[in-house]
Each structure stands twice: as structure tokens, then as C-alpha cells.
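User: Need the bound-state model for glycine:
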Amino acid sequence: MKTRINRRTFVATASAGVGLGALSGQSLLAQTGAPQILIPTSAKPVVVAAANGNQSKDAEGLTCVARAFQMITAGRDVLDAVIAGVNIVELDPEDTSVGYGGLPNAEGVVQLDASVMHGPLKRAGAVAAIQGVRTPSLVAQKVMQETDHHLIVGLDAQKFARSMGFKIEPDLITEKARQLWLEWKRRTDPGHYLDPKTRAEAGHRAGLAMVADGLIDPDHYYGTINCNGVSAKGEVCGVTTTSGLAWKIPGRVGDSPILGAGLYVDGEVGAAGSTGRGEANLFGLISFLIVEGMRHGLTPKDAGMAAMKRVVANTVEKRLLNQRGKPNFNVTYYIVNKSGDHAGVALYGQSGKNPVRYALCTENGPSTPTVEALLPGTAED
Ligand code: GLY
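Assistant: Bound-state model below.
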């Protein structure tokens, strides 16, 4: 896309934030009447995220997607912007799927995963099973910026964070998360008499029952936030951060910190990231698959739908199938291409009685549209 636009006006637009983003190059030109120059390859700035990207708010009342969009249209680095967005969610103790306040593992310890990818720089960083740092996305960014590596895990991720100046806290569990963990223990382990397999199945059943009982938001059981942004120059970056599967086996790492699974960004193409059952996503490297679909010319929605079919095809174990013979879990993807086209795509469009949504911010402001779904109904039907 090429737009005739006055350079001074373009710079002003890029730094003026959300409001001016709605003006097209032509309408700006009509306003200024100034000489024209060609600005190559512009895009529609956009930010997409999981639905919790439009829930937690910062001190100025901005949600994750609104904060990231404001920073992107002000000309800030797109990765800095999407990380600043997810930091709002990581720091919110009420969001039990991400960062501080995230639900703990089976031993009551909060272990966090995060990854970042910078499209223009073609760099990435991630941490897995890190304890004691509220904002793992910022530690992942330090792995990208300060090391030759892409992934640091466990206690050594915490040591790395300490060396980078992060505050290390002895325990990130909040009272709310601790009470929920105790309830899960009460339901699954009353007498220490179950064999490990039965106990693991009972643990999963109890977790799902707590979702059904309304104790845990369904989106927070495998809860996560992914956030991807595109600037007016077509720069694409993304971040995914999570406390992972609630009550997971200690040390379990999900899809979020794995490049190609919980997040994939190609600066020449676009970005995709996920929430939902990480194991399904790890098995098929679905975020990578979506970006490759877009590389071959598919729209974000069509690339997402094609990838959903792969998830269905890969899901053959009986324990993972519902009575219709389809996956008994959901996965949702947040997708942008370099031009700023976007989509939220899921296996199922319903979660309980509620439609599955994603968070979006464009020049029209933040919104929470429903996703496009491959299959009717819910994962439990
Ligand atoms: N998608 C988050 C997880 O499975 O850990």
C-alpha cells in the first residue's frame, strides 16, 4: 500500500495517539494542502490480545490493548508497547491467569512462562517456570536484549532476572489464589490414597468442576494473555505471558514461552499467539503454522481456520475427545498480518453460556469482538 501524504503531517499523526489515527492520508492532505511525497508501505495500526486484554486497567484507566495502541501510535517501539500492555494484566492480582495473582502449580507455587518476539529486529526471548518475578514478559525481553539465547528456565531464570535488577519475591501467591489452591487440594487429595494416575485424573476433573462451579473463570484455567501489535510502518511484535495451567505438575512448561507455539512473529508476514490448552498448541506449533499460512497468502482468519483443522486432526486420544468426537478443550488465537488485518479464531466460539471474545484496539478505540470459530457449541458439548 502506498499513500500520498505530507511528511510533516505523517510524523505528527504517528505521534499524536489514538485520535488522529482515524484520518487517512488523503483527508490529511486535504486539510493541509501541502506538497506530496510518497510514504512507502503503510499499515493500519492495530493491537489484538486475549479478552483479558480489555479487562485489567492501569492508573490512567487504559486496558492492555488501549495502552499498547496508544504507545504504538505515539511512535514507541512496538514490542515495548505490547509488553507495557500485558504488564497491566501481569500486575493485576485479580487476573488469576497471568503474573502476580496467577493460579499456582500443584504444590501451591506460582511458576510463570513468557515469550517475546520482535519482528523488525528478528530477535526473541523467553523464560519458563520462573518464580518470584511479577512481570516475566520483561525478563523475557531482557533475555532477548542481553543474551545470545532464546529461553532460560526455572531457578536459573530467576537468577538471571536478579542479575538484571528485577525484584525477586519469595512467593507470588495471592490470598485469592491460595484459597483456590487449598480448595483444589481438598477436592483431590483428601486422604493421600489414590494411585498417581487416578489422582492426576481426579485433579483434572476437580479443576474442571471448579470451573463449572464458577470458582475459576474458564479462560483462566489454561489462562494466558497474548498481545500482538502492528505500527503504521508495518512493524509487528508480540508477547505472551502466563501462569500456565492451573494446578500443573511443578516444572510443567506450556506453550507460552515456546517460539512457534504460544507466540510466533515474522516481521515480513505477521504474528499469532494463543491461549488455551498449551499441549495442543505445542504438539502442532500452531502459531508458527498460522504465520506460515499468511506467508502463503491466507488472510488472518483463513490461516487461523486452517490451523484449527490441524488441531482437530491431531486430537485423537479418547480422553481428549467430547461425546461428538471433537476436542474437549478450546484454543484461541490472536492474529495480525503486516498490513494490520486481524482476526481472533478459536476451535469453539462458546465458553459455557458466553461467547469467546478477544481484545482489539484500532483507531476506533478498544473493543472486545467475538472470535471466529471452527466448531459449533462448546468444548464440553
Ligand atoms: N496456554 C497456556 C498454557 O497451557 O500454559
